[in-house]
């Protein structure tokens, strides 16, 4: 019956049966099972701009180098708050048609960093646009290709109030009377990247990371010890601020201001610097806007970062206490509540 050397019909039917079983088990059944999942409570729906941005993300091939999945192992902990679950992707692109599932956005390799929570790690639209225009402008060792076709070079006189001007350093683009503006595709792509944030799960239901080695367990213990002894301001700065202001504190000329030698950073009274971190800032001429970080950083983290910045790169200002940050935050909240009333 299974003499495939002589019975070619049996060979073809068996091969087809194996192919069919694998296709159903690996692709078809899991795809339809995914449609039975429900969204995470309070999970925001994707806006029209974010959906269009996802189309650009796919068409430009970003999925080839960037993943969007945090595996349930300790080594992936750096990419997001928790391991990914199917519900995380509930509001992503819907099925294209009855025959085709949505294009994969999970990626296949990590040539570039995972983007699961890039909307929290790097929420600055100005940074994202400059990074797309020329990645080396903000990440010196980046191997990511630039995407100049997502931008237009126009005369300064032709810039409309609705145009988004990209803060490009002069050593990269220095043409008098010319500006670089973002196209609709670039703006939508950045909107999509900013939307990539892991939804919070109900209390007590978050999956835990599985240590993959003795080294990972020891690393976990050292993190606890670090939390007891105090926050590492330099590490927090590198994870939160260095992408724009650079690890040298020199910033990016024409895009992001330097912290080294800054009067605001070195001011004995840290109030203005704290308010800038909490609420953001868009009044420094010649530089892009800074996003508000009040919702991303705790008072203790802000105090640790500021203390590092005020004592590095030649700066010499007093350390910042957690209570200093708390007072400014409370004042901002109080003023906001009075405005609403």
UniProtKB/TrEMBL annotation:
Top-rank lineage group of the source organism: Bacteria
Biased composition range(s): Basic and acidic residues: 323-332
UniProtKB keywords: Heme, Iron, Metal-binding
GO molecular function: electron transfer activity; heme binding; metal ion binding
Domain annotation Cytochrome c: ranges: 48-197, 228-313
InterPro entries linked to this entry: Cyt_c-like_dom (IPR009056), Cyt_c-like_dom_sf (IPR036909), Cyt_c_oxidase_monohaem-su/FixO (IPR003468), Cytochrome_c-type_DH (IPR051459)
Region (Disordered), start-end ranges: 311-341
One protein family per Pfam: FixO
Record's protein name: Cytochrome-c oxidase
Transmembrane portions of the chain: none
